[in-house]
């Protein structure tokens, strides 16, 4: 936990809402730099492949080789 001055949130919100036309943008710049650093610090991960759902019905699946009328 860290402590911030009581008016810090109001000042930050004011700067964010008036960006880019506002007079002050130091806190907005700091947040932008934090975002850039987080982007460089973390390495992306490849999502795991989803496993095919298990067949609990008792029927076996058959690959169709053509448009056949036969049912298995």
Describe this structure in words.
It is a single chain. The chain is mostly helical. It has a domain at 8-41. Helix content is 38%, strand content 0%. It is built from two helices and no strands. The chain has helices at 8-18, 26-41. The radius of gyration is 28 Å and the shape is elongated.
Task: Give the secondary structure arrangement, pairings included.
Elements: H1 8-18, H2 26-41
What would the keywords be for this entry?
72 residues; mainly alpha; 38% helix; elongated
Which regions are unreliable across 5 or more consecutive residues at pLDDT < 50?
none
Q: In this structure, how is the largest beta sheet organized? A: none
Shape field = elongated
What is the radius of gyration computed over CA atoms, rounded to a whole number of angstroms? 28 Å
Structural class by SSE content:
mainly alpha
* H-E order: HH
- In terms of DSSP E residues, the strand content is under 5%
Distance between the termini: 64 Å
Tally of DSSP helical segments: 2
Mean pLDDT: 79
Helical content (DSSP H or I, runs of 4+): 25-40%
Number-wise, the strands total 0
Short description:
The protein is mainly alpha-helical and 72 residues long. It has 2 helices and no strands.
